[in-house]
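Please predict the structure of the following assembly.
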Amino acid sequence: MKWSSYFIPTLKEAPAGAEAISHQLLLRSGLVHMLTSGVYSYLPLGLRVLSRIEGIIRAEMNAAGAHELLMPALHPLDVWQQTGRDKTLEDVMIRFKNKKGADMCLGPTHEEIITDLVKSFVQSYRQLPVTLYQIQTKFRDETRPRFGVVRACEFIMKDAYSFDTDEEGLKKSYAAMYQAYNRIFARCGLKPIIAEADSGAMGGKVSHEFLVPAPIGEDKVKDEAGVEHVAIEVGHIFQLGTKYTEAMSARYLDESGKQHPIVMGCYGIGVSRLLATIIEAHHDPKGICWPAGVAPFEVEVLPVQVSDVQAMSVAKSIYDGLTKQGIDVLMDDRDESAGRKFNDADLVGIPCRVTIGKRGLLEGKVEIKDRTTGVVEAVPLDDAMRHVIGIINGKNESAGQIS
RNA sequence: CGGGAGAUAGCGCAGCUGGCUAGCGCGCAACGUUCGGGACGUUGAGGUCGGGGGUUCAAACCCCCCUCUCCCGACCA
């Protein structure tokens, strides 16, 4: 991708009202744009990161045996009335009447909808267990949206739902999700604290929260020696039991022909919230330092001067070479001052930067910089490609490592 | 929902106890000079001062109402 023809509206200064670092950097690096409080557009670069996060989630959910589907965001209210959550969640539900006068709402979550769906297809123990998930937009009419996309009124969530014949099955399904969550967050460059938590309006007995320490956290966690962390909740998993399936009569027949309510679990990840959380965990005074697993591009090629014919031809050949290898490369081919291009590169935070300028070319070298460590190496031209690929592979490897 | 702060050009801001034909920096357009860490000069475009009402010869500025945004708290996934 060539920067000059792409859409990355970076800002020198943070817009007024953005206090949280992640919020400032999201805005400054041209990842998101606010429409109104708690409602955001994802710009091309932000969408790229979001897509990569979603890719990781899909890979791990699929590997854990979950199946993706997509449910509607528009719901008839009567589905919610079946469990009484039209009342419990009244405050956050965005409701209205359609033309026919029927009460409708925008889904704040999907337990009722998935239970209704599963109920119409699952009748036998032979069809269980099954775990289904979606990545979809949720709507919650927050009293106080906060910190950009951290607490938003419209946000993207991965929600999975497991259905089992009994508690033992639920525990297995739950454990599989628990493991998948560990892998997902590790691949996103996060080390969450896992805490047993209150199930709140969700219901059920056992639940675990995945919390990433950050100054803008809204939750407080203790695990080591009474040290209290403020943290952002990025995931929450629940052993729901039969709360929803009983209320909605979602039952199955066992081997002896006896009816039982299906035993359910639900598993959420705040996908758009992860965008902000990753930035909270990976930034420095100059900007974002994307972990390799979620970076919008893997390499930025930066010819210092577009008018320098030699530098441009070297930059193009590196760009073409890496692109041919299937590497996502962004080339800053803008006719801008060097300082501006360097600052934008630091701000946008692509993990590996190749700088091509007169200074290095005099010695037949280009500069390769690791955004996270800040380490800069001058590398001979013929070695540049191989060197970059080495760095990327190293980063990908360590990103894939799960402790 | 309680408490606080704020809304002036695309962005960041100044504009005091009314005198404004509303400024500054960045950005934007054009030309010239520059060219390895947000370069410089010249010229230029860009504003219902959040909205409505009121006081006044005169309102960005004072008064009332409303809307929106941000922060703290409560609530929440």
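Residues 364 and 380 of chain A are 6 Å apart (CA to CA). Residues 167-187 of chain A form the longest helix (21 residues).
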